[in-house]
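Box S1 | Example of a co-folding query
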Amino acid sequence: MAKLSLGLDIGSHQVKLVALSQKGRKLRLDHVGMMPLPAETIVDEELLNSAALVSTLRELLAKTQVRRRETAIALGGRATIIRHIRLPAMSEAELEESLAWEAKQYIPFDLDEVYLDFHMGNIDPETEQMDVILVAAKRTVVDDYCAAVRLAGLRPVVVDTLPFASANTYCHAYPEHFDEVAAVVDLGAHLCTIAVVHRGEVLYSRALEQGSAKLTDALQRQLALPYAQAEAFKTGDVGDGLVPADVQRVLEEASGEIVTELRSLINHHADQGGVALERLFLSGGAANSDALCMSIAREVGLDAARIDPFRSIASMHRGVDKAALASIGCQGSIAFGLAQRSTLDRLQASKDRK
Ligand SMILES: Nc1ncnc2c1ncn2[C@@H]1O[C@H](COP(=O)(O)OP(=O)(O)OP(=O)(O)O)[C@@H](O)[C@H]1O
Ligand SMILES: [Mg+2]
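Box S1 (continued) | Returned holo structure for adenosine-5'-triphosphate
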């Protein structure tokens, strides 16, 4: 069995880890785990407390008994810019050559301060135009994450983007929807990412810099609750304890604001004349909330399905922690997508391109 990269989804709330092996097209799950990060370790995708991340990573690696070193990570918030553009059809070498020039027009960052990458999509034979996705990621942020990952004893070989990692998981787990247009939405603590996927290609992607932490904040502020209590009320983790009547109202108000913003981002592509959405798939910790999923589904006007990243796994290593697998669920979607990446060194490729 060929080993793939270790998928590490370093979120602002929790680090999620998935390791897979591959035989032919079949995937085996080798390791899975998740560990919370201390508050303020990562804020607005900036690594503020590298030591806290390193020790969390070390603890997670020890707990999951991972020995693999090659790792894929992802960014997708304000440290990255993803642009979907159309260009006259050209070869990869030609695009590579004109990359900096194209990027200047579309990327609102100083190009000396970013790593650049691109993905070539479909070519329309009638217009001879091709879809291209340009990605720029701030060097300082990428370098900080990679340094922390190295200090934890790993070797970062792929830096992907969050919506692409989500899309990757969705395509593997739901091949029966290949021909349909799906919005694949990951709902995190401070960041929600959207990928509109059709026939294995990401047609459109967006990020909303808000997430489930906003609901906890609203409960803390409006009902004067400590963090742990607000988080427990939000996640329904209260056992037989009584939940104050106001909790529901505050949660509905705060999620209403997120849902409205998400709706316009999810539907933006279709509203701009793009192909209409047929499916809605949700992942991330906040997708554990039935109320939130139903409310997004209602706004978007489609049924919502929670992603089961592990649905199409052919087999499982006997050492996989079943409790960890059950608890990670849809929250493991991005780590799963990253774990599918081969150890192609795209970061190095982008450094060489500079
Ligand atoms: N049942 C639930 N209902 C609502 N929210 C939940 C539930 N379970 C977990 N969450 C929330 O999900 C969030 C964590 O999800 P996730 O691990 O996807 O975030 P993250 O990747 O660390 O953050 P981000 O991607 O935003 O940086 C937390 O805010 C947590 O409170
Ligand atoms: Mg996340």
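Residues 54 and 148 are 6 Å apart (CA to CA). The domain at 175-306 is CATH 3.30.420.40 (Nucleotidyltransferase; domain 5).
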